[in-house]
Write a structure and sequence with these properties.
Elements lengths: L4 E5 L3 H13 L3 E5 L2 H10 L4 E5 L7 H11 L4 E6 L4 H9 L4 E4 L4 H35 L6 H13 L6 E4 L6 H10 L8 E5 L8 H6 E2 L11 E2 L1 H4 L4 E5 L6 H13 L1 E2 L8 E2 L3 E6 L3 H6 L5 H7 L2 E4 L10 H13 L9 E2 L1 H9 L5 H15 L4 E2 L6 H5 L18 H19 L4 H8 L3 H11 L4
Parallel strand pairs: 1-2, 1-3, 3-4, 4-5, 6-13, 6-14, 7-10, 10-13, 15-16
Antiparallel strand pairs: 8-9, 11-12
Helix pairs in contact: 2-3, 5-7, 13-15, 17-18, 18-19
InterPro entries: AAA+_ATPase (IPR003593), AAA_lid_NorR (IPR058031), CheY-like_superfamily (IPR011006), Homeodomain-like_sf (IPR009057), HTH_Fis (IPR002197), P-loop_NTPase (IPR027417), Sig_transdc_resp-reg_receiver (IPR001789), Sigma_54_int (IPR002078)
Protein name: Acetoacetate metabolism regulatory protein AtoC
Pfam families: AAA_lid_14 (PF25601), HTH_8 (PF02954), Response_reg (PF00072), Sigma54_activat (PF00158)
Amino acid sequence: MALRDVLIADDEESMRHLLSVFLTDQGYQVRAVANGEEALKELAARDYDVVLSDVRMPRMDGLALLGEVQRLHPELTFIVMSAYGSHDAAIQAMKAGAYDYVSKPFRPDEVLLVLKKAEERERLWRENRRLRSELAQGYRLDRIVGGSEAMAEVLRQVRKVAPLKTTVLLTGESGTGKELVARALHELSPRASLPFVAVNCGAIPAELVESELFGHVKGAFTDASRNKKGLVAEADGGTLFLDEIGELPQGLQVKLLRFLQEGEVRRVGDVRSEPVDVRVVAATARDLGRAVEQGQFREDLFYRLNVIGVRLPPLRERPGDIDELARHFLARYARLRPEAPVAGFAPEALEAIRAWRWPGNVRELEHAVERAVVLCEGGLIREEDLPERLREAPRSPAALPPADGAEELSVKKATLALEERLIRRALERTGGNRTRAAELLDLSYRALLYKIKEYGIDA
């Protein structure tokens, strides 16, 4: 990463000229000004990578300029130039956040060396951030299980939107994994090292929502015995996840809208507002568009939240993910009982899992598998280990294989035979390409590999 745009601030015209000519010859884009005030105007007008500033200048000295740069442009590299007798000020500047300093008089090569060191630091910092992002991406996105096209589209949106500050509205039925996606958006963003604060708007009593979100000052109401920082302020610099946003009382909807527009919060009972920098991700299982039509949710707030909308599909719309999810949860909960290992699902148990409609979505599936692991007495989860509703649910294959001799009327056997036949047909059609076959079957790649092994298919 080359730091090519340099702003010089020095009240000595000869020094400005010397550095400008030398650094321009070295390939830098250079602009020189005479004091800190002019430097701030220049920084407001265009982007720079480095500020090279004298310590002692009229109107606004280098220390004052450093303070403003850190407040307004914290990403800039700030290098101090100090003349004889001002070393203490240079050290003070370093303590205040300057990257380095050079002492006057100096050779131009000394300034060039400091710039090169700053570039190397920037390169290493960016490389570190990239590696952390890749590690977080692998970790966080691996937790979102499912290879269906519906989930692949969700993951594409997450990757695209995560680095931005744009507000995101996650919609989907209860149990589809909205908080998991919200955490992925945070972990894949530049805010990953800063707080992720989750707030369930439907779980806080209506009379306490404002105080919980925005905080309060001592004496604001009867029980306010001390100042309290709100959850919005707790998320400063990071991500605020507002779950069940559709349950937010209408009076608070106005205040949330004001915060989103102005980036400031005012605690209950306070007369001052404070700036807060957060990325907001909201989620709801309600149809907010319908709630707007019915006057239950503010239209302006809805559009402010729904800048980017991500819909999480219910499990019934991605049946190809059920096997993979079931095995994922089995692996998770089987570790809790190492003394009695659970290796997998008996065929009839897996059939019951596939046949259920899962109205509670992924969360319901997780709880069902956890229960089965606890009750399982052998190496395989049996049908009787599953919740009663799954065992009693009607199930039937989409089509029966043709009768061969004596007619086979077993639903279980017919279902398994149909599944095996479809897998073999998909593999034949794709010339043995398992990735393409998984797409045709609407299965994840890992689920297909498991089934190939389960049916003993030589592909």
